[in-house]
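Query structure, 212 tokens:
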């Protein structure tokens, strides 16, 4: 899965996005992002001491916002992530993904408070709900990135590309980092599967889905 994760890491660069306001669901970067503020402990002897607890508090706030938003994310089946949380194993995996949220930015305030920006990869949510992708016996010999053109559906978690459980990002404009990737054309999208015109991709491939 090494090349797939390397490709997925590339999308942390700036790219055209589908986004919310309060908590950003950035399908083009493959991240759900939230800000958190940790208030300084007024009883701390100085701002440096206060920052120890306020940073943790800020991260906890951001994770709580992300957790609430993740429940609302749509699945390719038409359901939502929340509908899958009755399964204790799915809930445990999702809780683990939230706990392991990435710190994108952190800024200390002069009074000892912290402002942080945290994110959970959408692929981590997909794996929490549907399980990990299976690397083929031949390894990650396929392309690291494949662009899928003309997909007539909105972003959602769990779309299969052909026969593959796919790691995906969704965008309206092809990002520069994918300009040299091979292209395939979507023929149709139904029953949770995007059918394409042929590809040598593997489970390690990151699919960049370009919507009209």
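Result returned for the query:
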């Amino acid at each position: 899965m090494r090349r797939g994760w390397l490709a997925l890491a590339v999308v942390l660069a700036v790219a055209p996005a589908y986004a919310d306001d309060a908590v950003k669901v950035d399908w083009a970067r493959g991240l759900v992002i939230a800000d958190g503020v940790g208030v300084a402990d007024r009883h701390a002897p100085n701002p440096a001491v206060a920052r120890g607890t306020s940073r943790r508090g800020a991260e906890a706030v951001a994770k709580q916002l992300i957790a609430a938003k993740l429940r609302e994310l749509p699945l390719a089946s038409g359901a939502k992530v929340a509908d899958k949380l009755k399964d204790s194993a799915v809930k445990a995996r999702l809780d683990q993904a939230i706990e392991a949220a990435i710190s994108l930015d952190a800024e200390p305030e002069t009074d000892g408070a912290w402002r942080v920006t945290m994110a959970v990869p959408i692929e981590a949510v997909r794996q929490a709900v549907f399980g990990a992708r299976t690397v083929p016996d031949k390894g990650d010999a396929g392309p690291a990135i494949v662009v899928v053109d003309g997909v007539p559906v909105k972003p959602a978690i769990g779309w299969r590309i052909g026969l593959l459980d796919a790691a995906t990002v969704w965008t309206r404009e092809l990002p520069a980092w994918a300009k040299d990737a091979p292209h395939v054309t979507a023929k149709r999208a139904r029953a949770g599967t995007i059918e394409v015109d042929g590809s040598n991709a593997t489970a390690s491939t990151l699919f960049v889905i370009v919507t009209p």
